[in-house]
Write a structure and sequence with these properties.
Blueprint lengths: L4 E5 L3 H12 L3 E5 L3 H20 L5 H9 L1 E4 L10 E4 L5 H14 L5 E4 L6 H5 L8 E6 L8 E5 L6 H13 L3 E5 L7 H17 L5 H12 L5 H8 L1 H15 L8 H8 L17
Parallel strand pairs: 1-2, 1-4, 2-3, 4-5, 5-6, 7-8
Antiparallel strand pairs: 6-7
Helix pairs in contact: 1-2, 7-9
The structure holds acetoacetyl-coenzyme A (CAA) and nicotinamide-adenine-dinucleotide (NAD).
Length: 284
Amino acid sequence: MAIRKVGVLGCGLMGSGIAEVAAKAGLETVVRELNQGFLDKGMARIHGSLAKAVEKGKLAAEERDAVLGRLSGSTGFEALADCDLVVEAIVENLDEKKSTYAALDKVAKPGAIFASNTSSLTVTQLAMATSRPERFVGLHFFNPVPVMKLVEVVRTLLTDEAVLADVNEFCRAIGKTPVACKDNSGFIVNRLLVPYLLDAIRALEEGVGSVADIDEAMKLGCGYPMGPFTLLDFVGLDTTYYIANIMFEEYREKRFAPPPLLKQMVQAGRFGRKSGRGFYEHSR
Ligand code: CAA
Ligand code: NAD
């Protein structure tokens, strides 16, 4: 496989999962975070996930040690200089992503492929912020990354065929199923999922049912693994709010507009599981 060393930008919810699955698949993996505190937190999440897998008998202790041996962390970009693929999973903000790619572009080797895990930004505008738009794709993973099988592979008008072949091979090598998507905001899944999640909040605002009852109804009535409020807390209300704003800006349709309650919860610091409180209380 052309991709042997993987860089991951951001070691939050998604970056830590992407780094974990890449290292588990035998690839040398390096993650970059903003500062040592965030890096330590992200690495602790990976250690915890691997420990759980060992506990459950899904991973041998020696294999866990080998995975950790393939994994390293950094707060600088230089550590990503010899990566074949860099997957960016930082905050869902266009300016932050553009400035991060500009810094990465200066140190990454000429043949490196850049990928974004963006949920809602169009990939073309990110690719054009680099000197290598033909080597740029969207690789949209799903949460929790170690469990969810899908990766949406997003090509732009400029993406090289050879790059697409390499990233599809990478997805299969890490145990995922790639699905090809056009470069539209939200790709396939979020184009359909985000209006549903936002509509659940609107239903709550209208008093259709309580948080617990709406969740129970969608679980038992539709066979979904989680109700919409459990899922919102799981994804992160901050991330959902950024996604909704970007999709509303793109489509100008009410179904993508962030409901006032979502905005207020984010302003109040209720981000869901990651902050200890969202629509539910979570012990941290
Ligand atoms: N890491 C590793 N493994 C995990 C895990 C994690 N974070 N969370 C759960 N698992 C594993 C468990 O170990 C368990 O494995 P075994 O069956 O082998 O023991 C399995 O997943 C099932 O877990 P649980 O029994 O604890 O709980 P569950 O049956 O409720 O499943 C779930 C948990 C897989 C998260 C399930 O509830 C689910 O699929 N929820 C919906 C998730 C979803 O919709 N994700 C997409 C979000 S949208 C997105 O990602 C895109 C975006 O841009 C916002
Ligand atoms: P998160 O808030 O859990 O993590 C983001 C991390 O990026 C933080 O740890 C932050 O310190 C770090 N970061 C910010 N700027 C950085 C930079 N310049 N360099 C390195 N690290 C930086 O967010 P998340 O949920 O992991 O989301 C990350 C990306 O993945 C977003 O684009 C989001 O839309 C997308 N995504 C999220 C989900 C989800 O369910 N949460 C699913 C699929 C895709």
